[in-house]
Amino acid sequence: MAIEKLLILASIATLTACNATAPVTETTKETKPYVYIPEEYVSISCVTHGTGYIHSFAIEEPVHSGPVGGRMAGGASCGGLIAAGYALPKTWFPGMKVKVRWKPNGREWVEKTTNIMRYDEAGTITVHFFPNDQVRVVSSARYAPESPKHPISENATVPPPEEQ
Fold this sequence. Notes:
Number of helices: 1
Strand content: 35-45%
CATH topology of one domain: Immunoglobulin-like
Oligomer: single chain
Helix content: 10-25%
Strand order of the largest sheet: 4-1-7-8
Largest sheet: 4 strands, mixed
Shape: elongated
Distance between the termini: 86 Å
CATH architecture of one domain: Sandwich
């Protein structure tokens, strides 16, 4: 019986020694800097330049709102304005890329990444579709695609060079 009590005491002493905790030390978390980018919510439209009918399209927001990327917004076809609440940075910055997906009539979905052309003031996003699956994206606060002052003429048949 004495041996059993001795074994129990030795077991308790051993187990409580394992339960000891290390002293708490100050830990610093590495935080990634958060950069606030002011956005404006704008509408979306699209124009075809000799490409035929676009069944539907979508464009990704340039500022990623989550861990998997920006939200996709779009419409059923070209020929109208979509009040989609598309989040566009108020100030253009170099390298502002967006992913555009569209479904030409009778074909499978096409997906391209392109730059948003330089703008001075955030406004309606217009996606311009050109032959050979070329696409350009512009923002214009004051001028619709029909206006001669719009960044890409409605009658253009060749896309302007892509800005970097």
